[in-house]
């Protein structure tokens, strides 16, 4: 018999502890601590209280929790001495039906893992969808995590334990994230389309106006129609635009959405999550026959990543009048111009200028996006409210010294260009850390024609400097460039430097940010505010209308632009619930 949250809140301590028995393997102390936080406002609130009890525990207690878990397909499974919960999970993953070769492989991985880390390998084998990973996925993850740093692997084990506990709680409370499952499934189906050269390898790459890109647009438009959007079109740059009309004619629209193109060999959720979450919300409004006092415009932006052509934010930029006609003559790696690609896709180039939106017709723009970073994952938080999208400046440069013999040039007489850039990299690391939210990176560092026995006379490098506000960004840039000059002067070098990109910070509109904060709090989840280090379509719309974003936790330490990019059906459900709550809040405010 399933429990309800009301029953748990009203139960005696002993009854409540019994209700949560087995959620964390052989570790009742976690439930005991969490239950002191009753009454719980939601299942998400309970999950966070349990995770918080683990997070604030001693290292010894955390390691005890990890060691309380059985090995995957280990001795306890063979002896049939697993807990009922573990038996169910390992069985669903097919581990109880391993071939002799698979069993031997897992046994060797278990031995290697225990020898390296001193505790058993922990994996939420029911996976991010809750339906179960297959044996090959389990073995591949096992092998990959063997290379982790021990401290990181402790945290990764705990994160998987929390996912196991979340799924067990879902079972105990008969809570199924139905909308999260639908959003998950949309991502999986859309990921079936990938560009040639990548599709054959099982990799996801969707670049602007390829066959895979146009297939994605068609699928999204069909799904939008199925969801009940009143109008669906592919516009003049390839954006898929769905409109759900307001209850009264002439009302304003709330704009939302994100991009459906990807980086090469990327993940399934970057951008696309921000399309499917509002689609699910519109579908539920349509099913209920409900209209809001404002319309909803969901836009699947055709291009954001700048992978095929050097035209980043092409899709969202066109909506604010920032489409540069010179882009049409750009050629991709195969010599195909953007103009030719657009004509081949049946897009009407002459209509691009007509895409520009009138901000007076909109309440603003909101975007849901996977975090693309480790912060929420490390804090055991499913959602984060974005305070600002970082502004950034990029440079490309070259340090110039003197190439000389590595054996005969004394250390105090060298004019080593590479060492100078390395010194700058260390300064950037130290200087950016002073601000907390500033970041700085030398992502490209190349010694042209370098040789193992030659002191580098030239070193090409890049600078990427970002911060949540323009003044903070500019101060960082000023300090880094000043230090670059000092390094060159002290070492007797010269350098060239060219600014290649400058983007203004995009602070969230306070009113819309507050809507996200209210929605997250309504779900019983702690409100956590954070800047976005990555650029998003929202920063383009910010130029003409208020914007605010919601981040969703990523799995695998929040990795993004990578096939390991992932999130869970439960976190997707919370994103849908938060978006729905924002719609309700805005509707209440719009009522006469």
Q: How much of the polypeptide forms β-strand, as a percent range?
A: 15-25%
* Category from helices, strands and their pairing: alpha+beta
Task: Indicate the percent of residues in helices.
Answer: 40-55%
Assembly state (oligomeric): single chain
**Count of DSSP-assigned helices:** 21
Unreliable spans: none
The biggest sheet, with number of strands, parallel, antiparallel or mixed sense and barrel status, is: 9 strands, mixed
Shape: globular
Task: Report the radius of gyration as a whole number of Å.
Answer: 26 Å
For the termini, the CA-CA separation is 46 Å
Rounded mean pLDDT score: 95
Q: Give the tally of β-strands.
A: 16
Brief overview, please?
With 592 residues, this protein is an alpha+beta fold.
Description:
This protein has 592 residues and is an alpha+beta fold. It contains 21 helices and 16 strands. The strands form 3 sheets. Strands 1, 2, 3, 4, 5, 6, 14, 15 and 16 form a 9-stranded mixed sheet that branches. Strands 7, 9, 10, 12 and 13 form a 5-stranded antiparallel sheet that branches. It has a two-stranded antiparallel sheet with strand order 8-11. α4 packs antiparallel against α10 and α13 packs across α21. The longest helix is centred in the N-terminal third of the chain and has 23 residues. The radius of gyration is 26 Å and the shape is globular. The mean pLDDT is 95.
């Amino acid at each position: 018999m399933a429990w309800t949250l009301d029953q748990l809140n009203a139960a005696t301590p002993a009854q409540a502890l019994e209700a949560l028995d087995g959620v964390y393997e052989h570790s009742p102390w976690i439930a005991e601590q969490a239950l002191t936080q009753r009454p719980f406002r939601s299942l998400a609130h309970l999950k966070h209280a349990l995770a918080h009890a683990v997070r604030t525990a001693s290292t010894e207690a955390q390691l005890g929790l990890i060691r309380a878990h059985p090995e995957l397909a280990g001795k306890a499974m063979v002896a049939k001495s697993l807990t009922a919960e573990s038996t169910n999970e390992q069985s669903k993953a097919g581990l109880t039906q391993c071939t002799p070769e698979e069993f031997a492989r897992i046994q060797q991985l278990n031995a290697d893992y225990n020898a390296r880390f001193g505790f058993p390998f922990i994996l939420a084998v029911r996976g991010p969808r809750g339906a179960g990973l297959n044996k090959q996925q389990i073995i591949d993850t096992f092998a990959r995590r063997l290379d982790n740093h021990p401290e990181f692997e402790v945290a990764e084990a705990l994160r998987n334990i929390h996912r196991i506990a979340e799924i067990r709680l879902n079972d105990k409370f008969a809570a199924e994230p139905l909308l999260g499952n639908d959003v998950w499934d949309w991502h999986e189906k859309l990921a079936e389309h990938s560009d040639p050269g990548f599709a054959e390898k099982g990799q996801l790459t969707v670049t602007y106006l390829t066959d895979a890109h146009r297939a994605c647009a068609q699928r999204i438009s069909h799904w939008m129609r199925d969801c009940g959007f009143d109008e669906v079109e592919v516009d003049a740059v390839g954006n898929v635009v769905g409109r759900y009309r307001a209850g009264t004619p002439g009302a304003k629209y709330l704009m939302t959405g994100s991009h459906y193109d990807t980086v090469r060999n990327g993940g399934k959720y970057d951008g696309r999550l921000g399309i499917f979450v509002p689609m699910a919300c519109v579908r539920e409004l349509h099913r209920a026959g409900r209209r809001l006092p404002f319309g909803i415009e969901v836009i699947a932006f055709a291009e954001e990543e700048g992978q095929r052509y050097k035209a980043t934010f092409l899709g969202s930029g066109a909506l604010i009048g920032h489409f540069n006609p010179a882009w049409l003559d750009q050629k991709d790696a195969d010599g195909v111009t953007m103009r030719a690609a657009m004509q081949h896709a049946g897009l009407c180039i002459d209509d691009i200028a007509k895409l520009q939106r009138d901000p007076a017709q909109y309440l603003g723009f909101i975007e849901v996006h996977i975090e693309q970073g480790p912060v929420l994952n490390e804090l055991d938080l499913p959602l984060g409210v974005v305070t600002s999208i970082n502004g950034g400046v990029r440079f490309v440069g070259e340090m110039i010294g003197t190439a000389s013999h590595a054996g005969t040039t004394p250390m105090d007489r060298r004019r080593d260009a590479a060492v100078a850039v390395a010194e700058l990299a260390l300064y950037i690391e130290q200087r950016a850390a002073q601000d907390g939210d500033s970041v700085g990176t030398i992502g490209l560092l190349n010694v042209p024609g370098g040789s193992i026995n030659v002191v580098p006379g030239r070193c090409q490098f890049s600078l990427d400097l970002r911060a949540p506000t323009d003044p903070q960004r500019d101060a960082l840039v000023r300090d880094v460039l000043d230090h670059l000059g000092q390094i060159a002067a002290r070492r007797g070098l010269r350098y060239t430097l060219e600014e290649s990109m400058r983007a203004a910070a995009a602070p969230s509109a306070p009113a819309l940010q507050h809507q996200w904060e209210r929605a997250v709090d309504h779900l019983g989840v702690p409100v956590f505010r954070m800047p976005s280090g990555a650029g998003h379509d929202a920063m383009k719309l910010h130029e003409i209308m208020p914007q605010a974003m919601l981040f969703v936790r990523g799995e695998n330490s929040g990795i993004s632009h990578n096939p390991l990019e992932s999130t869970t059906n439960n976190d997707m459900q919370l994103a849908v619930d938060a978006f729905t709550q924002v719609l309700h809040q805005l509707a209440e405010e719009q009522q006469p």
